[in-house]
């Protein structure tokens, strides 16, 4: 029986999950770049890390990095040469919480340290997309979360947290660093939902109204939400911004 592949640590989930060639033929199948392949390109080609440093960041061997990186570059080359759509989804990965980032400089490290959970103090942390007391309706554009700590079925503390300019799927990394267990939001695309699932965050989408009231309703078991919610801002998706077609699966336990 083959040994299961080790999950790769991914620090930043992609902001944009789909790219379409301008003026290209319609309905051509996209090239699928996995999230871990994307991460090797980001670390090596964007951040300038060596393959050895990339391996340390992703917590895998340099030889594994070489294989993933080579596959990623072949796919990107096909996209550029043949004018194909590109979609980022799936792969064997786990989002980092900020505590594992080597070398410093990751804003999630600050969140991880500041919002670290103290064992036994509370049992749940709920995040809500937030704007002026209300649930902000477009997950990918939210600028603030209101975060609630819950113990014994009651809110014990709450705080409004800036998202640091992150958007779409990358917001799952922010929530992961905040160590949120649950998200309440309005509209949200499939790619962002996949990122939340990868981070182990339970989603209650399609919720409107007061953020505080929604949290109280969740705790009371009366929250009205839509389990099949999809983002619908601007009447549709613009170039895959919300990742409606980026609903990949990863296979890490």
SSE blueprint:
Elements: E1 8-10, E2 18-19, E3 31-33, H1 35-46, H2 51-58, H3 62-82, E4 86-88, E5 93-95, H4 107-114, E6 124-131, E7 134-135, E8 144-151, E9 154-162, H5 171-177, E10 182-184, H6 190-198, E11 202-204, H7 211-220
Parallel strand pairs: 1-5, 3-4, 6-10, 10-11
Antiparallel strand pairs: 2-4, 6-7, 6-8, 8-9
What does this structure look like?
The strands form 3 sheets. Strands 6, 7, 8, 9, 10 and 11 form a 6-stranded mixed β-sheet that branches. A 3-stranded mixed β-sheet has the order 2-4-3. The chain has 7 helices and 11 strands. The protein starts with 7 loop residues before the first strand and ends in a 33-residue tail after the last helix. A hairpin with a 2-residue loop joins strand 8 and strand 9. Helix 1 crosses helix 3 and helix 2 crosses helix 3. The chain is α/β, with parallel strands linked by helices and 253 residues long.
């Amino acid at each position: 029986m083959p040994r299961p592949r080790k999950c790769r640590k991914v620090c930043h989930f992609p902001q944009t999950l789909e790219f379409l060639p301008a003026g290209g033929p319609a309905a051509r199948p996209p090239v699928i770049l996995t999230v871990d392949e994307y991460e090797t390109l980001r670390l090596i080609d964007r951040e300038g890390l060596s393959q050895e440093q990339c391996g340390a960041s992703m917590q895998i061997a340099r030889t594994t990095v070489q294989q993933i990186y080579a596959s990623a570059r072949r796919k990107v080359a096909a996209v550029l040469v043949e004018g194909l759509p590109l979609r980022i989804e799936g792969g064997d990965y786990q989002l980092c919480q900020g505590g594992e980032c080597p070398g410093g400089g990751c804003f999630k490290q600050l969140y991880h340290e500041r919002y670290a959970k103290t064992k036994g103090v509370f049992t749940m942390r709920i995040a809500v997309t937030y704007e002026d007391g209300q649930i902000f309706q477009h997950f990918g554009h939210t600028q603030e979360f209101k975060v609630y700590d819950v113990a014994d079925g009651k809110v014990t503390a709450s705080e409004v947290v800036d998202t640091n300019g992150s958007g779409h799927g990358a917001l799952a990394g922010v929530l992961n660093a905040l160590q949120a267990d649950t998200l309440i939001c309005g509209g949200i695309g499939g790619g962002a939902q996949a990122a939340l699932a990868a981070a182990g965050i339970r989603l209650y989408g399609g919720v409107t109204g007061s953020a505080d009231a929604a949290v109280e309703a969740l705790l009371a078991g009366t929250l009205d939400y839509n389990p099949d919610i999809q983002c619908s801002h601007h009447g549709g998706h613009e170039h895959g911004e919300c990742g409606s077609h980026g609903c990949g699966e990863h296979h890490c336990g």
